[in-house]
Amino acid sequence: MKYESINDDSVISYFNIDWLSENDGPGKRLVLFLQGCHLECIWCHSPHSQPNKSPLLYLDSLCKKCQRCKHACKKDVHRFIENKHIIQRENCIRCGACVEACPQSSSNCKTGALSLPTQSVNVLSLFKSIEPHLELLKNIGGITFSGGEPLLQSKALVLLAKKCKESGFHTTIETSGIVPLPYIQSIFPYIDTWLVGMRLLTGANTLPSIDLEKITRGTLNFLTQKPETEIIIRIPVIPGFTTTKSYLNSAKKILQEYKIKNIELLPHNPESSHYYKAMGLTNQIEYNSSKADKNYNYVIDFLLHKKTKQITP
Amino acid sequence: MKTELSPRIAKLRENLMKRGFEDRTKEWFKKNEQADLTTRPWLPDVAKMYPNEHVMIRRAYGVDEMLKAMCNTKDFGYTRCFDIEEGDLLAGTIPMGSNGLGKVFPNYLTEEELRVGSATNKTAMSLLGHNSINYEKVLKNGLQSIIIYAEEKLHPKALGDIEDAYDKKAFYKAIIISCKAVIDYASRFANLASEKAKTCKDEKRKKELLEIARICNKVPAKPAETFYEAIHSIWLVHCCLHSTMDFMSLGRLDQVLNPYLKKETDKAFACELFENFIIKAAGRLNLTTQYLVTQDHMDYNAALGIHPYYLDQRAGLNNFLQNIIIGGKTPEGKDATNDCTYIILEAFKNVNLSTPGIYVRLHKDSPAKLYAAVSESIKVTKNLPYILNDEVMIPAMLSALSFGETKPDKLKKYQELANDYCVDGCWEPILNGISEWTFGMINGMTIMECTLNRGAALTSNPALLRGQKLSIDTGELTDYNSLKNSLTKQIQFFVDQSALAMCLYYLTSEFVVPSPLVSALFGKCLENGRDKSWGGAEYNLGGTVLGGVPDMVNTVAAIKKWVFDQKKYKLSDVLSALRFNYTAGDTGDFKTQRLFDSIKVDFFTNSPQFGNDSETNDIAKFILDTFVNAVNQSKTLANKVFLDPKGDNDKQIWALRAIAGYYGKALQTILPDFDLKFTAGMGTFEQYNWQGAGNAASASRNTGDPLAPNFTPASGTWHTSPANLIETFSQLGLNRFAAGVITDICLESDALLDGIIKTFIQKNGGMLTVTIASPQYQEIYEIAKAANLIENPTVASEKLLKYSDIMVRVGGWNAPFITLPLSHMENYINRPVKMN
User: Does residue A216 sit in the same domain as residue A253?
Assistant: First the structure.
């Protein structure tokens, strides 16, 4: 796992802004999705958040096969074979020429056929561009820093979080908690609500790792020192990964140890394959709605001390 | 929360909706051209009855004949104008007619007047309205007192000298005739109510009818004393004005009615009365489009000022130019919110119809309760009320009024007037009941084409060579500065053309469309002995309204970026692309098409767009500064040529007047106190589709596509938070636009509404309408489209019935979505601002 910061200290890389979310922290919130994550969880529904640099996203349903991208590209990334648009991402240097040439894509909004979603912006100018909107959210919510793993850009993020706090905006961070403690400590004074993922396992592992449990404990140990800090544990319910007895037992133990009452369970996202397709990858976990529902109910019962019935994940 | 309507109001509303879906053709006053007039009587020809009377008197007789015809059930019973509906608490019914469909009125112009009028585009049907009545006087004094005043003036001793050749005698006679006509109209309803009461079996209703009879015998002739009398008096006068071609708006009714509300102990009844009032005012609704052609009563001269102004008739079919304005400040500058403000707002929320419109004036110190009530009402109705920002509109009105004025007492007076501003039946800011308003519209994208193409439109017709010549040649553009210089000169040209022509309006209207009934109630007309169409009003405002500004900004931004900064394209190639709608066509080769494609992609998707971020602010600010400056320059010239008596002794000035089409004395020689205050505004009204249809392609627009509606990011070009748009407003100095600057936003969700309203006021936005989008736009569009192509219109109309409560803003007013032209529907589908 690499922890190094991906930018210089005053620049933030992000791949999306959600202007209005009601699911990521208290009230109505602007969510800033920071680029880069080191955990590579196999169930991740934002695989494009993981690399340090922007991946080229392509949505076949929007492509008109006009081939202007092919003409614009100097690196032979775009090929058209039998009216099929084939992308050689390994050649891509992220110059943006294809996105600019594409009539189905816009530099003004990020939902076109082609996009390089990541933007790197100076903290102050980013703040200036979101401040008017944060004013709208002032008494009804605030800002949430999500990702990716936002704390990989901890130095720049501290600047931004500080700026937000100084302006009276409520701040929330969504983190895996699997980062060096100093990252947590440095931003701690500027965060009102912590959404901590219980990442006891990562990658394709199905068993919790002792190392990750240790890091999680370290994080929670620090965060729970101040009783006024709001901590919410967020667990994605992924059948076969976060629904196993061993994961749930470990998780439950930690929750009890730190007396954490606030738990949010995130159901398996039915659209989780969307960005895999856009990145030209195949997602390795298929979404199955009945399985997802059953497991979700099972985990609720388990963690909330209700009578449980073992199911086959 | 929406309050349940009382059974009475629910029934009245239901009946109105039902009627709206019927064929209303049969309700129009209609002459049968083929048949013998004895089998189908028609309105009398007043010009033939009184061929030697002054036009003002003929017009007044026309008012009387019209109001008589409306109560003549023998000949005109089919118009359904003379009835009191079951449960209705207000007597008086406005006959069919609207901004989009036209009006019906007895002819009062001689054949010669009609023929000469064709030269200035004026006849009796010239679109009036666009002003408001301050009903305070009517309620306080009654029409009887106006008649007495006019009769005293007619006494030879009091008449004074008439050295300016203005026929004051005719004016006062016309006042008396038209006021009497209204009183007679009310008493006919008093008799009708008494008759109905005689046969009424239901004791409760019988009492109501007797009360209506009592009230109609009293008001509007005499002063009103109770809330019921006050609201009925206003209704009767409003009804008479709208029935006789004067589509006058209603003004600040909460201010006018509150003293009467204080006396009313039953507040629920007061609210019910107001709900009843709204339903009556909406009585002319058409909710299906299948019978519109047979209701088309518009003629060629639906003109404003002296320029033809062709309406989007279908979009304007339910626009009756009637708004109610609530909240705001008192003339002294204190918060004006009162109990009646809330009752009116509540009534609008409960009834939720597309007309009349309701505007709430908000300022930084408006009560939190009012902010909350406004937000709540928008959430329930998805549309109402619209919002006017006092923080911007009061300084704007003040600066227009006090242009060139330094005397402290005058400035103090102007401040009071500005504090009391309202908007007319559309959204143009006016002084409540005392200012005559006229305006000219200019299309910013036509200015843009002339800027880029040396005074010519970017027409593709080869017979026109470079293009249709519309203005002066301001030279080839070589860099961004030369573009700015050229744009400045073009804006001045178009502003002069529109604004200077407004002065001529005052020299024609008097003799074609005098309004004695309005003048009886309006400003100082009565005291001055002059019709409002000729300087009778205390104040005269002439607005120049620039449309398509967001498109101008986008186009300048794209050209600046790609032609002048990055030098990716030659300007001539860009102009060809715009001229030919980015299509090389049959003659163009493959290479040209590739180039046009590339330009189009950059102009549509890779250029900064108005309202999204600060990138376009400098350009927007430049255009606004230039425009305001041009209007001020125009005013200086207009003063010199038309207004200032000094010019009467200057041959050069006489020559200038003649060039403009006027050869006479200065307006201030004829009338010393006359001034036409020039104001600047930005918007399109419902014309964004119309105007855009005549323009070449531009950034983010194909040839003929709609312009941006009003001062709003163009449909489909808005990708960020509304907060960013409001932030833009805070930097543009919108408090210079006394002719209004209005933004119509359509939001996918109402989640941030409270904050948006508050921020809009605090950050100095001008005027705002919010539509909370319906997820059903697309399906309504599909049904309407299918109806146009294959389906039986009656079947389609039945299918659309269930969507009749969905209203949207069409630039100047609200309209039921189901009645819109398809092009407007398409525009709306792309509008809602998504935030995630």
Answer: yes
Contact B98, B320 (CB under 8 A): yes
Q: B-contacting residues of A 224-243, CB under 8 Å?
A: none
All residues at 6 or more sequence positions from B328 whose CB lies less than 8 Å from its CB, including other chains: B252, B336, B337, B360, B361, B362, B363, B366, B388, B390, B419, B422
Q: What is the pLDDT of residues B731-777, one digit of tens each?
A: 999 999 999 999 999 999 999 999 999 999 999 999 999 999 999 99
Q: Give me B33's structure tokens.
A: 């051209």
Q: How far is B609 from chain A (nearest CA, A)?
A: 8
A66 and A189, same domain (yes or no): no
The domain boundary, picked from B248, B271, B299, lies at B299
**First CA to last CA across chain B, in angstroms?**
27
Instruction: List all residues of chain B from 696 to 725 with a beta carbon under 8 Å from chain A.
Output: 717, 719-724
- Minimal Cα–Cα distance from A67 to chain B, Å? 11
Q: Please choose, from the candidates B818, B819, B817, the residue with its C-alpha nearest in 3D space to the C-alpha of residue B832.
A: B817
Domain that holds residue B495: 430-724+726-730
* The domain boundary residue, chosen from B299, B331, B354: B299
Residue A104 is part of which domain span?
57-115
Domain count, chain A: 2
Q: How does DSSP classify residue B713?
A: P
Instruction: Determine the distance from the C-alpha atom of residue A282 to the mean position of all C-alpha atoms in its chain, rounded to a whole number.
Output: 19
DSSP sequence for B508-576: THHHH---HHHHHHSTTHHHHT--GGGT-SSEEEEEEEEE-HHHHHHHHHHHIIIIIIS--S-HHHHHH
Residue B540 CA neighbour count, 13 Å, CB half: 23
Nearest residue to A261 (alpha-carbon basis) of A229, A231, A239: A231
State whether A132 and A186 are in the same domain: yes
Confidence check on the interface: ipTM exceeds 0.85, yes or no: yes
Residue B566 domain-assigned?
yes
β-pair partners for B389: B362
CATH number of the domain that residue A107 is part of: 3.30.70.20
What are the tens digits of pLDDT across the range B305-340?
556 567 788 888 999 999 999 999 999 999 999 999
| Whole-structure pTM value | 0.94
The predicted-structure confidence for B195-227, as pLDDT tens digits, reads as follows 999 999 999 999 999 999 999 999 999 999 999
Residues in contact with B265: Cβ distance below 8 Å, sequence separation at least 6, in sequence order: none
Decide if A132 contacts A155 (C-beta within 8 A). no
Reported for A308-311, long-range contacts at CB under 8 A and 24+ positions apart, including other chains, are A310/A245
Is A270 within the bounds of a domain?
yes
| Smallest Cα distance from A19 to chain B, Å | 5
Task: Work out whether strand B767-772 and strand B742-747 pair parallel, antiparallel, or are unpaired.
Answer: parallel
Tens digit of pLDDT for each residue in B448-457?
999 999 999 9
Is residue A313 assigned to a domain?
no
Provide the token pair at B443: 């299309």
Q: State whether A162 and A219 are in the same domain.
A: yes
Residues of A in contact with B724 (CB under 8 A): 129, 132-133
Structure tokens at B15: 């009946």
